[in-house]
Every structure is written in C-alpha cells, then in structure tokens.
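--- STAGE predict ---
source: upstream dedup step, 1 unique chain passed
mode: sequence only
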Amino acid sequence: MKTLIVVRHAKAVHVAGLADRERGLTARGERNAREAGDLIRPLEPGLVVSSPAVRTRRTAELLGLDAPIDFEGSIYEAYPDDLLEVLRRTDPEVDTLVLVGHNPGVHELVLSLTGTDIDRFPTGAFAVIELPAPWEEAVPGAGRLVRTHHP
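--- STAGE serialize ---
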C-alpha cells in the first residue's frame, strides 16, 4: 500500500507585474502551510515532490516534514496525466509521497485517482489517497480517498 498526499500550494500574493512563478505566500498562506504540515507529519512522508514555483517551494518548506524535497519542473501547469507520470517515477522504496502543486492539475489528479467528486480544492488544501499498487502502476480510479483538509 502506498500513500499519496496531494497538496495545493498555500494562499499566494498577487503583485502587479510579478511573474506567476515568482509569487510568494501571504501571511495566511504561511500559517496554513505550517498547520497542514502539523497534520501531515504523523503520516511520515518519505519524499516531497514540488513544483519549483516560489509559492509551491515555500509551501513545501513550511510543511516542515522530515523528508527530502525534490523540485520537479513538470509539476508547474501540469495536467493530471503529467502528475501521474511524476508518481510513476517515484522510488519504489518511498511508501508515503507528498506532491505539492497547482490547480487545476492537483484537484483533477485527486478526482481522477479516486473517482470522488470533491467540488473544491482551495489553496492550502490537501487530500490523502491510498494506492494499493506500486507507484509505477498508478492509474485513474486506483486510489481510495482517505481524508481531505481545507484550511
């Protein structure tokens, strides 16, 4: 059994003229990311994979997990199929993976993997999904939604 924790980055700032990839987090976003980390930490993730955008990078760092963080460029503006490919490349030794990304891709990934109709996946939200097979066999409909959290 593998556990996937899909995290949408925390609330980001909107600054005129600032490139989308360079947007950081608001004070609320920073608080929400730390709170999410407190809830995720007991699941003992072995790896965090994050988009390299500033807001996702900062969210991943503020989770404060005792796991290495890999920054994967393909997560930025990714579709669910792209995110499934990231999952499939995960080291088989990793039992619990945290994926930090952007909407609509992360929300659609949760819907695709679980077949569950979650109508909202706001900034700072996360979903915990159990997958019964190795990462390389991750396919739509294979997961079971265990829990969601909205800040």
